[in-house]
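Below is how a single chain appears once it has passed through the pipeline. First comes the sequence as given, then the structure the pipeline wrote out for it. We keep one example in the README because the format questions we get most often are answered faster by looking than by reading.
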Amino acid sequence: MSEFEALGLRPSPDGGGLIIDGKLVSQSVLDETARGAAALGVKPGLAVVLVGEDPASHVYVGAKGKAAAACGFHSVQHTLPASATQAEVLALVDALNRDPAIHGILVQLPLPRQIDATKIIEAIAPTKDVDGFHPVNAGLLAIGETARSFVPCTPAGSMILLERAAKALGLGLAGLDAVVVGRSNIVGKPMAQLLLARDCTVTMAHSRTRDLAAVVGRADIVVAAVGRAEMIRGEWIKPGALVIDVGINRVAGEGLNAQGKPKTRLVGDIEYAVARKRAAAITPVPGGVGPMTIAMLMANTLASARRAAK
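Resulting structure:
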């Protein structure tokens, strides 16, 4: 196995930049988490709360359950009907907060309209908020106290991919110009905090940034998390940049599927085909950041169990 492969990177098939393989890296995180759980002496407990019948949410929750089982966790799922009240969800969260066998609580979003997601997130004990969405964890991240906080899973996983790519290329992150496109509380803002912690010079950009092409074009690191299909054009990418594409967008494909319906395909926020030939390393969509989100959820749950055991 080459050094690139050991770090979860593979060469581009046509001579472009290195491909950062999120599936390989996420598996290494899951394997390490499983070993840590086996050595802990206490089985980490993860509770997932699902409200309603959203098909995508059921798929995500199922994948999280499988990953938890593979890591040797105590995994439970609480499924409530779409008609559930906010009081019912809050009561369930309160019970999970008080359950010593549960170290991580995840309430799957989106929630039905009658439920205020912010109030539900704030009801989760910060010590069990393995999604990293609670204001206490967001505040600890903002002041650099990552050892006491839980970092949201997608930016945490993106940071691991970025660090591996930099290591493979013999680069240090300190001093590099980083542009984060997207300002969400879930990805954009925490990603900027993580990059600042690694001594990058960080610019927060978004859909209303003036001359976005120029802002992106000067960046050594580009993290796209804006939620618009291929909004960032490939020719904007600085040659030799490190590129992390968080976006997952479904667009029209070619032809019809077996049911006679138009095919669709997944693309990121970056025009991948062109960007891949300019970047030094880039994540694909799918198969890049996506697998890391679940892996980091498992890692956060193990960290919570360790803190509780101490």
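Residues 41-150 form a domain with the Rossmann fold fold (CATH 3.40.50.10860).

See the next section for the split statistics.
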